[in-house]
Amino acid sequence: MPSVTLACLLPARNCAADLVGYFESVARFADAVVALDDGSTDGTQELLAAHPLVRVVLSNPRNRLLTAAADLRPPFIISIDADERIAPDDAAALRAFLQAGAQRDCAYLLRLYGMVADEDHYAGQASWHGRLFGYQEGQVFPTRRLHLVPIPISIPKSRWIKTTIRIQHFGGLTEERRRLRFEKYREADPDCVFQKSYTNLIAPRRGVKRWQPRLPSLPVVANDRFPDLRPQEKGEPLISVIVISQNDEATIERSLQAILSQDGAEPFEVIVVNSGIDETATLVRKKFPEVKLVRLDSPVLPGRARNAGLAIARGRYVSFPGSHVALLPGSLAARAAAHQLGYGLVTGTMLNGTRTWAGWASYFLDNRLTLPGRPSGALDDAPPRASCLREALLAVGGFPEDMRAGEDTVVNRRLFDSGYGAYRSHEARSIHYSPCRRPHQLVSHHFRRGQGMARVLLLEALETGRFPARRVLRYLLSIVPARLAWVTLSVLRYGHTVRRHYFVALPLVVIGAFSACAGTCYELVRAGRAVYATRQRPTPSARGNAASPREGIRRAADDVPAP
Predict the structure, then answer these.
(1) What is the radius of gyration, based on Cα positions, of the chain?
(2) Do strands 317-319 and 377-379 pair parallel, antiparallel, or not at all (unpaired)?
(3) Dist. CA 371–CA 350, nearest whole Å
(4) Torsions phi, psi of 278, nearest 5?
(5) Is the pLDDT of residue 513 over 50?
(6) What's the pLDDT score for residue 61?
(7) ω into 216 cis (within 30 of 0)
(8) Between β-strands 422-432 and 345-352, what pairing exists: parallel, antiparallel or unpaired?
(9) Per the CATH hierarchy, to which homologous superfamily does domain 239-542 belong?
(10) What is the 3 state secondary structure string of 59-125?
(11) Do residues 111 and 90 make contact, with C-beta atoms less than 8 angstroms apart?
(12) Residue 1: other Cβ atoms inside 10 A
């Protein structure tokens, strides 16, 4: 019998119409199929028996699938239903993972996406489903009749690992199929014992998005390191340092001198994107001829400026230090070293350059995750002020261009949620010169940052097709005390060198936190009406609703003169 690396379990009932596409998909990653036909009347059993990939066809009970698969002695077993597919790029990543790095004593969770209208679009949020595990003799499935998780009960949840492999679920592709699924579950669970309600199966599909190819260099284990094996091309900079500037004539020279004097770093390029009305561009041309200058004709929001720099960047990684930030010696080399460990997102240490009490208050509010006492290491959340893998930034479409603040938060979350790992390098140190020198500047600055957080929440509402009312309410009720608690704990744990400044500036920290909350409330009321109106409109056709993921980059590139 040929060697089997991965056996696929298939519970089937009246699914003849799905089997052609199912076998086409499964053949890309599995060596054998063990099927269970649960009383089909539409020719399913005959199709299963005739396909060369199917080794065994059983009838109930479901645990017999695992017993039959054991006869093939596969190192790994996966469960994929007849109305599910794994796209070719995810299938290739899965196969490579099983042959190189998968652990036999673990179970793996895959993300399931509900496809709608056609094979290129999905709706709503993805959900995690346990489907893949290493086979061991004597394993059995749970005995739950509905919503069974096909993971052996001998594998504890502490050994369940999230992956970036995606499953496309076609069971709700059309309104007719959604109605049939609803009737099936209503028949199987008329008293709603296993689930409170099944009306979600027939609810209108909102938040339709285009299916995207697997992101480049994405690790299979979610938020893990990726094997960055692509050789660096001749003349290719390792990092592109993009400084966005708007009326920063007084500060840009300090920032650029700090970047260009970096020691020990791999080859890097520096790009300045200027959209102000002062003499910043003239100063850069005169004093820093080695810097690439992108001059935009009119002031633009930060996301547009970032995309303009990204459009001409050539580095494998991209960093956005800002015109009010000065890199300390060795900072860029430390950031590059962290990226070369295989992390798609890297943040560092931020020091305070505005040493007024308002400046200290702003520093603590903005930098609790980058305090100087925090050691280097992997992070379990999307980091602030992160440099990123450039090809991943391009793949997600760059930065949103309609936000005054928070555009980097949106992108960092997208990349982290997609599965890229994040790392904090203690040695990647920078100094931030905040504009918050006085209390009124602190209030104004953090009010705008609160507005940016509201835009993040509203953008999620547009993408998912629902306004996150409960989440927003919880956020508003808890954000000030929770934020103050997070900052205080971070300072006590990692801010031993700046702790005394924190407690002296604490009243202004509280004022800044309340100002940010007020900005969030204001923006939710001001802009939330437009989002709600958008949500109430009939869902457009899937194809008409999808935008190119690189649209922002292309639009920005049109504004950029040749370097």
Answers:
(1) 26
(2) unpaired
(3) 6
(4) -95, -160
(5) yes
(6) 64
(7) no
(8) parallel
(9) Spore Coat Polysaccharide Biosynthesis Protein SpsA; Chain A (3.90.550.10)
(10) CCCCHHHHHHHHCCCCCEEEECCCCEECCHHHHHHHHHHHHHCCCCCCEEEEEEEEECCCCCEEEEE
(11) no
(12) 8
The residue extents of the domains of the chain are 6-210, 239-542
Confidence of residue 12 (pLDDT cuts 50, 70, 90): confident
> Percent of the chain having pLDDT more than 70?
84
Q: Are 373 and 526 in contact (CB under 8 A)?
A: no
Enumerate the H helices of 245-330 as residue ranges: 252-260, 280-287, 302-312
Res 189: pLDDT: 65
How far CA 339 is from CA of 156, 231, 266, 348, 424, in Å, comes to 33, 14, 12, 12, 10
What's the rounded mean pLDDT across residues 115-122? Answer: 84
- Fold annotation for 6-210: Spore Coat Polysaccharide Biosynthesis Protein SpsA; Chain A (3.90.550)
360-377 tens-digit pLDDT: 999 999 998 899 999 999
Look at the block and give the residue holding tokens 């997609």.
Answer: 418
Give the rounded percent of residues in the chain with a pLDDT score beyond 90: 47
Helix axes 357-366, 469-494, angle to 10 degrees: 120
Cβ neighbours around 448 below 10 Å, total: 16
Residue 463: pLDDT band (50, 70, 90) is: low
Query: How many Å apart are CA 399 and CA 207, to the nearest integer?
Result: 19
* Nearest Cα to Cα of residue 428 among 339, 323, 319, 330: 330
Give CA–CA dist 396/242, Å, rounded: 18
Rounded to whole angstroms, how far apart are CA atoms 377 and 223?
13
pLDDT one-digit tens code per residue, 134-155: 998 888 888 765 557 889 999 9
* Cα gap 446→334, rounded to integer Å: 30
Q: What is the mean pLDDT of residues 267-292?
A: 92
- Are 6-210 and 239-542 the same fold in CATH? yes
DSSP label of 118: S
DSSP 377-407: EEESSPPSS-EEEHHHHHHTTS--SS-SS-H
